[in-house]
Protein 1
Amino acid sequence: MTIGVCCFENTNDPESGWASVEGQEAEWVNGIGDLNDQVLWVTNLPFLTHRKLNLASKGNIFDTQYFRTAIDNIGSEMGIQSDLKTLSEFCSREFKIVADMGEKYLDISLVNPGYRYHKTASYQLLPDYVRQQPSGINSADIIEAMNHSTQANQAISGLKRPAGAQPVGLLFPRHVYGKWLLSLPMPGENKWKVVKQRENSTKFGVEGGKALRNTASVLERLNEIGEKNALFLRVSVHSMDKFYQNFASFSAGEKYIRRWATLPEVLELARIAKISINGGYMCKLSESPIVSDGIFGQSDMSFARGLLIENVISALASPVSNQNGSRQTMLSAYLRAYDRIACGRAAAKLASEGFVVGSYSMGRIVVFMRPGEGRRLA
């Protein structure tokens, strides 16, 4: 598939811009009509503009987040956001490399490109046991557990944006971060057992800066069970350390009140909150790699390889669809939990240094920075 990028001067009214095919020198175009129908075009148009113009009907023109990271964010990362000609050339070259590596290592084909690259990749990468819907008398409860345990974005509650501050995305290195995430233990089957609960659930964690009396014994037991099992636990958060309330509040960013969390998130919550567990479900962990090591080139830390790895993680964290709509999976819950823990700790460090954190997800922490504040990060 031939891949091009078109960066329009006005993303609300795409009348003119620069278009490049696979890294070749960009050419000036006077609107959508000038784009070759035989090329898969990724534009810098936001989703709402793309939908308003009904560009999905063309089948070969996509919005700015087709390869997940928006083109303007890529421009900011590379310091070329204001040079649309160079930006279109850079992105078209890198996106082509992403597509070629995806086909070479993971058999991801763009013959039918789909809505987003990571969604197309998910059809190829998600194991069969992940696609299977839980069955049995507890199936509805287990599905709710997976849905509640998957939180795609950690929003900040009660955020007061500083006057004159602009959002800046801070990223973990994609290659290293992705390799770490995909090396962690994940749920490895779709066979579930009930985690028995005691008649009176024990409160554990921290309160007033001090560990509660039963915390050590509860954590020891949880870690013991979690050595071989993936756990989804029904959890109640009774209080949280004041420092963490704004940027690590349990369920902040969700459309509903969460009642479930994976074991990794429960262990993290116990560091900053007073919580209790009221039963849950478990399945066996998998120690085998989820995807081929081919995507982790020993000497290749290129932008394109990092972007491919980011899309692979997003693919594995994607929900699955059926006749009743879509549902989250055990894999998405664990991947999102690991990611939220890592980003949350980075957010805590930034907050302790006086930065205002906006949100975080998938290795990216958004910080609101005032002019000149960026120098403090060095």
Protein 2
Amino acid sequence: NYLPRAVRATDEILSDLGEQVGEWTLLPSRGGVFEVTVNGELVYSKKETGRHAEDGELLPLIRAAL
């Protein structure tokens, strides 16, 4: 159950970049899918890395994509 991790990541990202975010969608899924896209660009994929993002790992990736 990765929902708590996804919620923590959401809190971190929106707390830091909230004014720059026009839309945020969190889609519950099955099978351990966890992907983050920014303006249509995939910036993180659990399927590609074989692991869930660590706390603090997504924010720099999202900043770089903005």
Protein 3
Amino acid sequence: SCSLLGSQHVMDYLGNKLGIKPGETTADGAFTLVEVECLGSCGTAPMMQVDDQYYENLTEDRIDQILADLNTATSE
């Protein structure tokens, strides 16, 4: 489901936003981009996991908001 619904675009978009490739970590150590086989969220694909939190139904705008929220949370 993720593949059919744009998971590669999500990976590419995240990589560009974070300035890293799969398997790499951002310079500040905050994010590592890892592609996994399946997280079992077929009905809400594409999705990503950050720590123990799932983020589903991803779009570019949703990814931007999630990253902004995560950056705000880590800077507090």
Protein 4
Amino acid sequence: MSSRKKREFGEIRKIQVTGGSTYIVSLPKHWVINAGLKPGDSVVVYAQNDNTLLLMPLKEASRKKDVILTIKSKDWSLGRAIRMLVAAYVSGGDIIKLVVKDGVAPIEDKKVLRDFIRRYLVGAEVVEDLPEGLVIQVIVNVEELKVIHILQRMHKLVWSMLKDTMTAFMNLDKDLARDVIIRDDEIDRFYFLFIRQLNLSLQDRRIMLDVGLEQSADAINLSMIARNIEKIADYATYIADKTIKLAKKPYEPLKSKIENLSRTIIEIFNEAMNAFYSMNDNMALSAIERASKTAKLEEDLENVMLNLDVCDKDTPTLRMVVECLKSMLNETADIAEHTMDMIAVRKS
């Protein structure tokens, strides 16, 4: 066979039968050598739902991913340590060692890191406390945490945050606003976990089915949808934070306009997510069109904003709340857009 044919089809091997019922096929010699295998070693065979097989040395299938993060003492900062830790977690690290390369990690910083790990990194635990840092082990059952289930949890939580944020804003319920802010931690936890699961599936094809990723082409749009949901939660949290700072309830004409726009945003958000769950292009298009038709609501709201007293100390805060609502609307429309992209890929 010509080298061109080999490049197009790979190496063609004939299936043989041994023992009357066992089908066998020989392995390419160069693959065996490169994998460091010898006669008697074991391999793991994974049957994929596209009728392909994934072949992997047993030692590779059971290998844990160790990550060592080192920071020079002169470069150490809590912010840098947290960012490096999150990056190692979402990239799929199983054992993460975070240490100061040439010194001792500050005790107070290690306490903050422990709290951060507990609050934001699902399945991660500190298993060793060293003078120079921490050793973290991540134990997550991949099969029980499919990406679609994580997105569903994020959707439900953000939906409740949106409703409670706007209730808190309308009624100047500062306790409810504080509760919304606390719930944002849960969204961050789910988002980090989602990115971790997605990265693991792209690094190791055998995990794709375990996490519920039907095809690798979905990964980009799924990550964008997760980011849209996380951003909507951020905007809801921002409005909740501004609600706490308000001196009084918004006056009636403005309150009514904001209530109408926020109710529409929540409806479009749910419609966009339901379109995603069902891969329904008509529903996704409807969400996109509804988002584009809110221009009249936004225009009415802007006209009311023009009449706000510039000397009122609440006015700048109210303007920021309105801008947040507009940004939130764009994020909901983007969810439907990414759903349309996924549907188009599947139809092609």
